UniProtKB/TrEMBL annotation, chain A:
Keyword Transport (UniProt): yes
CDD domains recorded: ETF_beta (cd01714)
General function of this protein: Heterodimeric electron transfer flavoprotein that accepts electrons from several mitochondrial dehydrogenases, including acyl-CoA dehydrogenases, glutaryl-CoA and sarcosine dehydrogenase. It transfers the electrons to the main mitochondrial respiratory chain via ETF-ubiquinone oxidoreductase. Required for normal mitochondrial fatty acid oxidation and normal amino acid metabolism. ETFB binds an AMP molecule that probably has a purely structural role. The electron transfer flavoprotein serves as a specific electron acceptor for several dehydrogenases, including five acyl-CoA dehydrogenases, glutaryl-CoA and sarcosine dehydrogenase. It transfers the electrons to the main mitochondrial respiratory chain via ETF-ubiquinone oxidoreductase (ETF dehydrogenase).
UniProt keywords, alphabetically: Electron transport, Mitochondrion, Transport
Name of the protein described by the UniProt record: Electron transfer flavoprotein subunit beta
PROSITE patterns assigned to the protein according to its UniProt record, in alphabetical order: ETF_BETA
Gene source species: Electrophorus voltai
Keyword Transferase: no
Annotated InterPro entries: ET-Flavoprotein_bsu_CS, ETF_a/b_N, ETF_b, ETF_beta_N, Rossmann-like_a/b/a_fold
Principal localisation: mitochondrion
Domain Electron transfer flavoprotein alpha/beta-subunit N-terminal: from-to ranges: 25-217
GO MF terms, alphabetically ordered: electron transfer activity
Automatic annotation (TrEMBL), chain B:
Catalytic activities: hexanoyl-CoA + oxidized [electron-transfer flavoprotein] + H(+) = (2E)-hexenoyl-CoA + reduced [electron-transfer flavoprotein]; pentanoyl-CoA + oxidized [electron-transfer flavoprotein] + H(+) = (2E)-pentenoyl-CoA + reduced [electron-transfer flavoprotein]; 3-methylbutanoyl-CoA + oxidized [electron-transfer flavoprotein] + H(+) = 3-methylbut-2-enoyl-CoA + reduced [electron-transfer flavoprotein]; butanoyl-CoA + oxidized [electron-transfer flavoprotein] + H(+) = (2E)-butenoyl-CoA + reduced [electron-transfer flavoprotein]
UniProt pathway annotation: Amino-acid degradation; L-leucine degradation; (S)-3-hydroxy-3-methylglutaryl-CoA from 3-isovaleryl-CoA: step 1/3
CDD domains per record: IVD
Record GO terms (molecular function): 3-methylbutanoyl-CoA dehydrogenase activity; flavin adenine dinucleotide binding
Residues covered by the Acyl-CoA oxidase/dehydrogenase middle domain: 140-235
Domain Acyl-CoA dehydrogenase/oxidase C-terminal: 247-357
Protein name (Swiss-Prot/TrEMBL): Isovaleryl-CoA dehydrogenase, mitochondrial
Task of the protein: Catalyzes the conversion of isovaleryl-CoA/3-methylbutanoyl-CoA to 3-methylbut-2-enoyl-CoA as an intermediate step in the leucine (Leu) catabolic pathway. To a lesser extent, is also able to catalyze the oxidation of other saturated short-chain acyl-CoA thioesters as pentanoyl-CoA, hexenoyl-CoA and butenoyl-CoA.
Gene3D superfamilies given in the database record: Acyl-CoA dehydrogenase/oxidase, N-terminal domain, Butyryl-CoA Dehydrogenase, subunit A, domain 2, Butyryl-CoA Dehydrogenase, subunit A, domain 3
Species of the source: Electrophorus electricus (Electric eel)
GO BP of this protein: L-leucine catabolic process
Chief site of localization: mitochondrion
Gene this chain is encoded by: IVD
One GO CC term on file: mitochondrion
Length: 254, 383
């Protein structure tokens, strides 16, 4: 039985919220805006908890990087069945510039420290859509990776992953330890039942700083400007194909 | 359309009234909301039209699995071991999706289960609570009679002692969950001469000879919350099914009413929230005279009125619930809170009708439903 699964969970702006760009164009408004666990991270937690219920793993550890508020996200993971949590405190400017590179360094360090043999992450976060953290973490650890997983099966010391790719489905077999990133169809996350929500209150969340893990938080990326997408212009109806072609030529499209 | 409303409602999901210092309450609310969206919202329309919830028993078991049916029941009997504020939040979110099912839920989880928790002895709790809490059994409570509503202690149902049994004779009316209930708490006169001091509470099981239910009532509001008359004809109830001491039932009844009013007040809160969920987005979409109707002063006034009525009702309710959780029970406040919430809900629903206008005439029960539930709330107030 695999000892430990590490699951990364990210606190993001709720998917249903209408995003507004800050007046100074440095980012989006987050103050007072509803936040939730990234939907793909929910799927990752669900998968880890199911593995534990099947007795294929012993312990599920939920990790999140960010300020105080991310503890809510970790608690949600605990309520879904994770055993304990780790809160890596990142705030202020470091949090503003926090991206996949730093997170994957943190996760890699934690995986070694916790002796995890499986890391499950969401395939991407719905705020930045980077789709990089899983891949970078695997590279830093020199572990194999199964990304966009729609199915995950542990077979002894190997993992079979069915991946959703452009051409269809690809099935691969990986030697543990591995990094897997969850895609939409991997599972349907459970409701946290009330008794589990209450049990989660007693579960432990350890606090640490990136420095404790020897991680350099310097960003290699600088956000210059954030703008709303251009307003969609009304279309123009044309009478004939010739008309369409001439209009496209006029617009310099062909 | 329902899911669009849900998504829109997620945006302003935390008006000041629902900002909880406790993460637990957030998680509770979130879980119940999701649960109701998936397991109840798709059926809400049809429930109201047909005055029936065909998959009620499955829903009950699903709610039981989530831990919703025994919020205030101790963990050792399978309950969730939480408090009144928690129960209020759950009730509110169910009501937001279906006022009728929320009423049935309230009757089961508060009127029946909570009374059992507060007054049952060890044997009774062990026997009846587990199945009520898992949802295998449906619970109800019966005090009102056709001639005893506000003056409930004038009830006429008698409970005559015969050896180690009590024989019940009489009828109860307006009994929520009556048609479905497996377990009912029933109040009767063990000493008719002693008026209020002659009332005793009993636990009745469906199937006890002499106990029967009459036809389901076809109601104007709260349709889908099954209500009926229940009949006792020489129904023999073993004396170990007495709930609380003999002739002291009025204390069981009256103290129970306080908490019933408290928890059921969350019903109108959920309804008011549902009205806002529908009306506010509509005001931002519908146009007339060249602008969104939400820009007209009258509509803005209505929005402000609806919002403040909901918010003030909510704060009153949550505060009284918190006080109860700390052991301070005020009959005045429990009665005050349901009076306040119910009357505000009526007003908010009427304002909502004005906002939705002719759309209401054409639309499905999903929008009409919140408003049609209001008359039933008044019934609870008078009780």
């Amino acid at each position: 039985m695999t000892a430990r699964v590490l699951v990364g969970v990210k606190r993001v702006i709720d998917y249903a919220v209408k995003i507004r760009v800050k007046p100074d164009n440095t980012g989006v408004v987050t103050d007072g805006v509803k936040h939730s666990m990234n939907p793909f991270c929910e799927i990752a937690v669900e998968e880890a908890v199911r593995l534990k219920e099947k007795k294929l793993v012993q312990e599920v550890v939920a990790v999140s990087c960010g300020p105080q508020q991310v503890q809510e996200t970790i608690r949600t993971a605990l309520a879904m069945g994770a055993d304990r949590g780790i809160h890596v405190e990142v705030s202020g400017k470091d949090y503003d510039s926090l991206g996949p590179l730093q997170v994957s360094k943190i996760l890699a360090a934690l995986a070694k420290k916790e002796e995890a043999s499986l890391i499950i992450l969401g395939k991407q976060a719905i705020d930045d859509d980077c789709n990089q953290t899983g891949q970078m973490t695997a590279a830093l650890l020199d572990w194999p990776q199964g990304t966009f997983a729609s199915e995950l099966v542990i077979e002894g010391d190997k993992v079979k992953v069915v991946r959703e790719i452009d051409g269809g489905l690809e099935t691969i077999k990986l030697n543990m330890p591995v990094v897997v990133t969850a895609d939409l169809r991997l599972n349907t996350p459970r409701y946290a039942t009330l008794p589990n929500i209450m049990k989660a209150k007693k579960k432990k969340i350890a606090n640490m700083k990136p420095g404790d893990l020897g991680v350099d938080m310097t960003s290699r990326v600088e956000v210059l400007r954030v703008d709303e997408p251009p307003q969609r212009q009304a279309g123009v109806k044309v009478e004939s194909v010739e008309d369409l072609v001439s209009k496209l030529k006029e617009a310099g499209r062909i | 359309r329902g899911s669009v409303i849900y998504e829109l409602s997620r945006q302003y999901d935390q008006p000041s009234g629902t900002f909880h210092r406790s993460l637990l309450l957030h998680q509770l609310r979130h879980t119940v909301k999701r649960f109701c969206q998936e397991k109840l919202a798709p059926y809400a329309d049809e429930i109201d039209k047909a005055n029936e919830f065909p998959r009620m028993r499955e829903f009950w078991k699903e709610a039981g699995e989530l831990g919703l049916l025994g919020i205030t029941a101790p963990v050792e009997y399978g309950g969730t071991g939480l408090g009144y504020l928690d129960h209020v939040i759950v009730m509110e979110e169910i009501s937001r999706v279906s006022g009728a099912i929320a009423l049935s839920y309230g009757a089961h989880s508060n009127l029946c289960v909570n009374q059992m928790v507060r007054h049952g002895n060890q044997k009774q709790k062990e026997k009846y609570l587990p199945k009520l809490v898992t949802g295998e059994h449906v619970g109800a409570l019966a005090m009102s009679e056709s001639n005893s509503g506000s003056d409930v202690v004038s009830m006429k149902l008698t409970a005559r002692k015969e050896g180690d049994h009590y024989v019940l004779n009489g009828n109860k009316f307006w009994i929520t969950n009556g048609p479905d209930a497996d377990v009912l708490i029933v109040y009767g006169k063990t000493n008719p001469e002693a008026a209020a001091r002659g009332i005793t509470a009993f636990i009745i099981e469906k199937g006890m000879p002499g106990f029967s239910t009459a036809q389901k009532l076809d109601k104007f509001g709260m349709r889908g919350s099954n209500t009926c008359e229940i009949i006792f004809e020489d129904c023999k109830v073993p004396e170990q099914n007495m709930l609380g001491p003999v002739n002291k039932g009025v204390y069981v009844l009256m103290s129970g009413l306080d908490l019933e009013r408290l928890v059921l007040s969350a019903g109108p809160i959920g309804i008011m929230q549902a009205v806002l969920d529908h009306a506010i987005p509509y005001l931002h979409i519908r146009e007339a005279f060249g602008q969104k109707i939400g820009h007209f002063q009258l509509m803005q006034g209505k929005m402000a009125d609806m919002y403040t009525r909901l918010s003030s009702s909510r704060q009153y309710l949550y505060n009284v619930a918190r006080a109860c959780d700390k052991g301070h029970f005020s009959s005045m406040d429990c009665a005050g809170v349901i009076l306040y919430c119910a009357e505000n809900a009526t007003q908010v629903a009427l304002d909502g009708i004005q906002c939705l206008g002719e759309c209401l005439v054409v639309c499905t029960a999903e929008l009409v439903m919140p408003t049609s539930h209001i008359p039933s709330i008044a019934a609870v107030v008078s009780a």
